[in-house]
Design a protein that fits this description.
The protein is built from 5 helices and 11 strands. The protein has 300 residues and is of the alpha+beta class. The chain has 2 domains: 113 residues, Immunoglobulin-like; 154 residues, Aspartate Aminotransferase, domain 1, CATH 3.90.1150.10.
Length: 300
């Protein structure tokens, strides 16, 4: 069964902290698999969308659209391509919630309004909390980005990527702020060809780091400027791709292989570290995700 059609019992990764917040929109079952769009107020053509998924939380079924990482600000929620369904304010480090469970069809409510329902606001908050991995519940967390971790080296002088982060729990509320301020993109083939030796050195280090932090095999890309990482299946690749994009690192997917940027001028403590960091971070989240699914399945 596809990712979008199955019932989701796994925990949710929310990438919030500093100026990044999250939005959860609860809906009626009729809106399952419906895409909901939001955009910063006044920027109507630049929208972010997500699907309404069926989730099982503490034995109860909820239908919810989750935006795991939105820049703080005032947002328009779109009922369809041209009509606004209201507005919501996203605050950094917090989860905004909208209740559309009494709304069906072409949604037209004011998004800032709380609609009557058998569940109380306290239930809604409990639901949002229970969607998170257990280790992130009922605790305050730091919004310090993972990239500030000091470099660790082996006795041979190589970077010990697998030893740099011993606890992923303090990366904001099950996530942390985006790792980079600017999008890290691949370089052009001409830039690679101008320094093939430097490029090979960067690719080899990124590959080594990726293998250390994920235990997954790497793949040489036929296209210059990319490093490949082979995921266990397409669902894992799709899940990681979405999480990595949030971190402002460019990524593309071909089947179960993710391709990440590389260039001859990438520096060990900057761009190389950025790529390996976001993969280490998002792969950790995927591990939490898989563990949650397995735990739920075994308890049924």
């Amino acid at each position: 069964m596809s990712y979008f059609k199955r019932v989701h019992t796994e925990n949710v990764v929310l990438d919030i902290g500093d100026d990044i917040g999250a939005l959860m929109i609860y809906t009626q079952p009729a809106l399952r698999n419906r895409e909901i769009e939001v955009s910063l107020k006044g920027e109507n053509t630049c929208r972010t969308h997500t699907e309404v998924l069926e989730r099982r939380v503490n034995g109860q079924t909820v239908f919810v659209a989750i935006f795991p990482a939105l820049l703080a600000g005032h947002y328009t929620i779109w009922g369809n391509a041209t009509r606004s369904a209201g507005e919501i304010t996203i605050v950094g480090g917090e989860i905004a919630e909208v209740d559309w469970r009494d709304i069906t069809g072409n949604v037209t409510p004011n998004a800032g309004t709380t609609y009557p329902h058998e569940h109380s606001a306290s239930w809604q908050r409990a639901c949002a909390t229970d969607l998170l991995p257990p280790r992130y519940r009922n605790r305050s967390v730091s919004a310090a980005p993972m990239g500030t971790a000091p470099m660790c080296y082996t006795d041979d002088g190589e970077v010990a990527w697998q030893e740099m982060w011993t606890d992923f729990c303090d990366l904001a509320l099950a996530g942390g702020p985006p790792h980079r301020g600017d999008l890290l993109e691949p370089v052009t083939p001409d830039e690679v060809k101008a320094d093939l030796e430097g490029y090979e050195r960067v690719v080899a280090e990124i590959e080594r780091g990726l293998r250390l932090v994920t235990s997954l095999p790497t793949v040489r890309s036929e296209k210059l400027g990319w490093v490949g990482l082979r995921c266990t299946d397409e669902e894992m690749a799709l899940w990681l791709l979405r999480a990595i994009v949030v971190e402002n690192v460019c990524v593309r997917r071909e089947g179960c292989i993710l391709y990440l940027p590389a260039g001859p001028a990438f520096r060990m403590e900057k761009e190389i570290k950025n790529v390996i960091t976001v993969v280490a971070k998002t792969h950790h989240y995927w591990t939490e995700h898989i563990a949650a699914v397995g735990s739920s399945s075994s308890s049924i």
